[in-house]
Amino acid sequence: MTTESDPSYPAHWEADVVLRDGGTARIRPITTEDAGRLVSFYEQVSDESKYYRFFAPYPRLSDRDVHRFTHHDYVDRVGLAATIGGEFIGTVRYDRIGADGRPASGPADEAEVAFLVQDAHQGRGVASALLEHIGAVARERGIRRFAAEVLPANTKMIKVFTDAGYQQKRSFEDGSVHLTLDLEPTAESLAVQRAREQRAEAHSVQRLLAPGSVAVVGVSRSGAGVGAAALRNLRDSGFHGHLYAVNEAATRDLLDGVRAYRTIETIGAPVDLAVIAVPADRVPDAVAACGEHGVQGLVVLSAGYGESGPAGLARQRELVRQVRSYGMRLIGPNAYGVINTAPEVELNASLTPAPMPTRGRIGLFTQSGAIGIALLSALLRRGEGLSSFVSAGNRADVSGNDILQYWYDDEATDVALLYLETLGNPRKFTRLARRTAAVKPVVVAKGGRHSPAGHVVPDTRLPEATVSALLRQAGVIRVDTVTELVDVGLLLAAQPLPAGPRIAILGNSESLGILTYDACLTQGLRPLPPLDLTTAAAPADFRAALTDALRSEDCDAVVVTAIPWVSEDAPADDLAGALREAVAEYPGKPVAVVHVELVELALALSAVRGVPHSAPARSWGPVADPAHRGPAGPLSAAGDSIPSYPAAERAVKAVAEAVRYGQWRRAAADDDGRVPEYEDIDEAGTADRLAGLLADVDPGAVLTLTDWDARELLAGYGIRVLPTLPAPSADAAVRAAGVLGYPVALKTTAPHLRHRADLGGVRLDLTNEAELRRSYEELTDALGKPAELQPVVQAMVARGVDTVVRSVIDPAAGAVLSFGLAGVASELLGDTAHRLVPATDRDVAGLIRSIRTAPLLFGWRGSDPVDTPALEELLLRLSRLVDDHPEVIGVSLEPVVVAAEGVSVLSATVRVAHPPARGDLGPRTLPSY
C-alpha cells in the first residue's frame, strides 16, 4: 500500500509541465488513494479511446482493474497521471517484461507501455509529456526499451511514439502495430524535447501578453489603490479586448467606466487574464475563483510574499502550487505588470500610467519594479519604444527563461533586454540565450551577487567573473549597469551590426575626438585617427565627413562627436537632419553620436518615437546583399533614430559590445562547433566502474578516488595520468626510479605542499641514484619527515608550459570546464577561463585562448609554441567524461604539462557521488519552489 506520505513514494517524480497550448498540468505517480479519481477519469473517456486502449469495447473498469492500475511497486510496475485541479486528464503505465513478454523483474530491461488521455485534452501534448516522464522513470529503474501495441487506426498515439525522436523499430503483427523504442536519449530526441519545450513555454507567455479579455480583481470603489490604477491603465491604453472590474462590494454597474462585477464567477464570459490586487491573505480565494472560471493566467500585483520573510515565502510557495493546480501561469507575486504594444492588443496591465510606451523593437524583462520604472523612463526619454515589457516581481513562476522562449520567435522583438537579480537555472538560461542570441541580440544586466528576498533559486559557487564568461560563451551581451543596458539596447535596436572593430571618429572637437579614440583602445577596438572638423564646421561638413566614412572600406562603424557652436547659425535640428541624410544614403554601418551639452541634438536624433505600425520586422539572419546591409544585421529603416550619448565612454562601450556580438554571431554562423566522437572512449565500461565504486557510498556522500582508481577511470576516456610510485624512504625512492627509469622527479604529496613547487617540495631532472638520494635528504631536512611529506617518484616528461584543467559541478550551473596556467600568479590574478559542459571544439579553442597568459602557449618572446591541439583534445575528452557520467562531480588535473609535442597529466584528483535524479537533460519540467 503506497500513498504520497509513504517513504517509498517517489516524490522526485512529481513535476509541473507546460502543455502545447500554454496551459500547465501536474505529473505525479499514481497511488492507492487515486481509485476514485481513476474511475471518474475513465468515465469521461470516449468509447473510441477506450477501444484503442484495450483493443475491445471496455465501457467501465472492474474493481480488479482499479486495484491493478492504482497499486504499483514503482520499480517493475509504474503508473503516472497528468492532473489539472487534482483530477486526472491522462495516464501512462509501464510493466516490466521478460524476453517471453511476461511480467518480470530486474535485470530484465524492457517494459510494455500504454497511455490513455481524456478526449477533451487530446491534442494538448499530454501524451508526449507523459512519455518523456515515464521514459525518465524507466531509465532510472534500469529499463532500456519500451514496447507498445497500437491499433493501426490509432494514428494519434502512433504519432506520439514516432515523433519522440528515440531510435525505434516498427512491425505489424496480429492486426496491430508493434513498436519498440530505445530509451537512450539521442540528439534527435533531445532536439524534439527542447523544441516542444520552446513552443509550449512561448505559447504560455503569449497567452499572458495577448489576452482577449482581462479582469482586474480588487478595484476599489474610491478609485484609489493598486487595483484601480491597473484598471485605469488598461482602459486608457486602448486595450482591444474585453475589460472587467471585480470588487466584492460593488454597488453599481461601472467602476471607472468599466463594467463591474462582485465576483469573477458572475462574469458571463471567458476571462483570459486576471490581474489580482487584493491583500495577500485574500489572494488564495481570488486564485481559486479564477481557476474555477477557466482563467488562463494571472498577474499578481499583491505584496507580502517571499520579500517579507519566511512566512511570506511559505505563502508564495503555496500560491505557485495553487495556480499550477488549475493549469494557469503566474507573473509575480509582487509584480509591476506587463505591457504589449502590438497594435492588435495594446495591453498595459501594469502600474505604468498612461501614455504607455510607444511601439518599438525592444523587449524588456525585469525582476524589479523600481528598475522597470527606471528603464521605461530612460527608453521614453531617448525616443525608443517597446514590443513587450514584463516585470515579474518575485518571479515565482514565469521567469526570464520563459520570456526568452517567447522572444525567440516573436517577430515584433529585435532586441532582448533583461535586468536579472538572479539567473534561477543558469544552465537552462545559457542554453536558451545561446539559441536566441543566434537570431537576435540578448543584453543582460545582472544586479547583485546574492539572491534577494523572494527569489528562491539554487545557490551558485561560481564567482561573478565565471558567470560572465559563461554568458558570453552563450553570445549574451553582459553589461554592468542599467544605464549600459539602455545604451547598448538603443544602438542594437536602431543600427546594423558592425563588420569589425575599425572605428572612424569625426567631429568638431579635437579633445572630444581624442577622448573617444582612447575609449576605443580601452575597449579593444581599432580606432582610426580622429578627423577634426574644427568648431567652425557646419551641418553640411558633418554630412560630408560622415558620408565619406560610411562609404569607406577602411572602417566598420562611426562615432560622431559634437560640441555646441559659438554662433546660433547651426541649430541642432539641422545637424540631426544632416546626419540622418548621410546614414540613409549609406545605411550599412552603425553610427553613434557623442554630444556635450547638446540636449536639443539628442532629442532631434531620437525624433522618431518608436516604430510605425507598418514598419517591417527586423531580420538578424543571413544578409543577401552586403553592399546595402551590415554583415550580420539589417538595413536600418528609413527615419530610424541615431543613438546619442552624453559621454564618449558610453558610446564606445555600446559600439564595442555590438562589435563583439557581431564577431560571435559570425563565428557561430560559420561554425557552431561540434562535440567530437572518440573511438577509444569506453562509455559502458566507465559506467560499470562508477557503479562499482559507488556501490557502498551513501546518497549525498562524496567519494574521493584513490590515485589508482582515478587513473583507471580517466583511462576509460583516453586520459592517461603519468604513474607515481611511493617513496617512504630513500631506498624506496631508488627502487621506484629503477622501475620508472631515469631521469625522475621527486615531489611531496602532503596536502599543504601539493602543487606548491614554490615551497621547495619538488626536485626535477634527477639523473642518477646519487642525485636522488641527495635530493631526498635535502627535502626531508628542509620540510619534515617522510611520513609527513608523503614523497613520490615520477618519470620526467618533456618540458613545456604547466597548466591546470578542472571540471566541477555547480549546483545551479551544472558541469563547468575550467582552464588556466599553473602557478600562484595565475591563481592570484584569477586568470582562469570557463565553459559549460558539453564543450564543443570551438568552445575549447576559445577557452585556452581567452586567458590573459595565453601568449605563453603560442611562442611568447621567441619560445617554442606548445601542442595546443593535444591540449584541446584533453579538454574535450574531460568534457565528454563529465557530460556522459553525472556521477563524476569533480576532476582536477594539475599540473598538465603541454610540450611542443603532446601533453602529460602528472596528477589527478577525482570526486564521485550518486547523481541527482533529474537534470537539464531530463524531461521537461517547471522549476519547483
Could you walk me through the main structural features you see in this protein, from its secondary elements to its overall organization?
- The protein has 929 residues and is an alpha/beta fold.
- The chain contains 27 helices and 39 strands.
- Strands 1-2-3-4-5-6-8-7 form an eight-stranded mixed beta sheet, with helices on both faces. Strands 11-12-10-9-13-14-15 form a seven-stranded mixed beta sheet, sandwiched between helices. It has a seven-stranded mixed beta sheet with strand order 17-16-19-18-20-21-22, sandwiched between helices.
Strand order, largest beta sheet: 1-2-3-4-5-6-8-7
Shape assignment: flat
Radius of gyration (Å) = 32 Å
Structural class per helix/strand content? alpha/beta
Show unreliable segments: 608-639
Give the overall average pLDDT: 88
**How many DSSP H or I helices?**
27
Q: Strand share of the residues?
A: 15-25%
Q: How many angstroms does the end-to-end distance come to?
A: 28 Å
Biggest beta-sheet profile:
8 strands, mixed
Number of strands: 39
* Assembly state (oligomeric): single chain
What percent of the residues sit in helical stretches (DSSP H or I)?
25-40%
